[in-house]
Amino acid sequence: MKKSLLFVLILIFALSMNVGATKLVIWESAGPETDFVNTVKDQFTAETGIEIEVVPVDQLSQASKLALDGPAGKGADIVVWPHDRIGQSVLEGLLAPLPVTEKDLALFIDSTVDAMSYEGKVYGLPYSLETTALIYNKDLLPAVPNTMDSLFTIAKELTDDDNYGFLYPISDFYFSYGFLGGYGGYVFKQTDSGLDTEDIGFATVGGVQGAELLVRFRTEGIIPEGTDYGVSDGLFKEQKVAAIINGPWAFAEYKKAGVNYGIAPLPKLSNGQYPTTFIGVKGYYISAFSENKDAALQFIKWLTTKEMAYKHYQMNAIIPTNEEVIAMPEFQENKDFLAFATQASRGVPMPNVPEMGQVWDPMANAITIMLNGEADPELAMELAVEQILENIWEMKN
Q1: Based on the domain organization, do 105 and 138 belong to the same domain?
Q2: The domain that contains 26 carries what CATH number?
Q3: Cα 64 from Cα 287, distance rounded (Å)
Q4: Nearest Cα to 249, choosing from 309, 313, 338, 179?
């Protein structure tokens, strides 16, 4: 009888221990980002007893997947994507506001905290600051010119057969926005009360000037038809391109490919201004459907500490958002880091309002019809603005 009672007590204790165990699921893009979390997760488990499962899901697909899987109890506890998707995700009820303090947020660059915020609440902890810049092969382009006109000249001289002077995914609005913005174009007008989503600045004089520059890349034989991200990125790895526009996410692969690369801010435009590239902030968010929100918050705080932020930088060459890491001599003396920091200082944050989701496709279509000669820049920009406004109206009605 005593032995039976002892067995029952041991069984009850074991069951109670299992009930208390926590397992978190985090979605992350396959590749370097998944590799980072998989590398450090066991340390967190050893410190806390909380298990971590990393499931590869592309960042740009996570919101739509969470909308389907979350209500069914199959979604992740932690999701990761760029800050411009926050507004729409909040409206769809996908993200939980974070119960963080000013002390928690003081670890990060102020602008990155702003990017993680929507209507007065913080929805994520930022881990990387991104923008695009000029990445060049030092063996093919020893010095970067000061102006885009000079880059045009050099690019033409270096372009022949399968070799190119300058490439980038020109039809992708994210990569091309800097040229529109540098001439004065804008997505939504910034006002004292926030973004005016009814005032879109692509069909302005400046926006059209920027669009004309994009057309020059095609008509002057610099960027051929069919140049998407995969093409420009792949040819740069093969050392067949002197310079491209890309972001810090590409560094790890360029190192593996053995490219002797350097980084520089984008050269000055003909109006004396610099391209105003988009600034993007990536963050960790907690699903509104998660049943382990406290543990999830503990994990994303841990992932963004000085130790982990530095390790993340070492593995993937991200631009960290943790102020303590940025203050380290390794960053202050890093020419590549300073080049991106300079370009970021000339950039503008991507709007994180829900209306931003209605901008991407019309602008990609407008760039495509311009490059194909189906519409001049002025008409293409006017059509894009009309379509964006129509999309926003339909979204709200």
Answers
A1: no
A2: 3.40.190.10
A3: 12
A4: 313
The tokens of 131 are what? 């923008």
Count of the separate structural domains present in the chain: 2
Give residue 395's Cα distance to chain centre: 24
Helices 32-48, 306-316: crossing angle, 10 deg rounding: 150
Report the relative pairing of strands 189-191 and 194-196 from DSSP bridges.
antiparallel
Same domain, 177 and 244: yes
On whether both 124 and 188 belong to a single domain, the answer is no
pLDDT one-digit tens code per residue, 301-353: 999 999 999 999 999 888 899 999 988 998 888 888 888 888 988 888 899 99
Q: Is 208 among the domain residues?
A: yes
Structure tokens at 247: 């972001």
Structural domain of residue 55, as residue ranges? 16-129+281-345
Q: What is the pLDDT of residue 4?
A: 55
Nearest to 229 by CA among 282, 172, 165, 166: 172
Q: Provide mean pLDDT across the span 177-198.
A: 92
Whether 304 and 322 have beta carbons less than 8 Å apart is answered as yes
The two three-digit tokens of residue 277, written as one number: 């590239």
Residue 309 CA to residue 285 CA, distance in Å, equals 16
The predicted-structure confidence for 34-62, as pLDDT tens digits, reads as follows 999 999 999 999 999 999 999 999 999 99
Give the DSSP H/E element, type plus range, for residue 117.
strand 117-118
User: Quick check: 279 and 179 in contact, CB under 8 A?
Assistant: no
Cβ proximity of 278 and 177 under 8 Å: yes
Torsion of Cα atoms, 391 then 393 then 396 then 397, to 10°: -110
If we measure between CA atoms, which residue out of 53, 102, 104, 44 comes closest to residue 78?
A: 53
65 and 156 both lie in a single domain: no
Is 79 found in the same domain as 162? Answer: no
173, two tokens: 């609005």
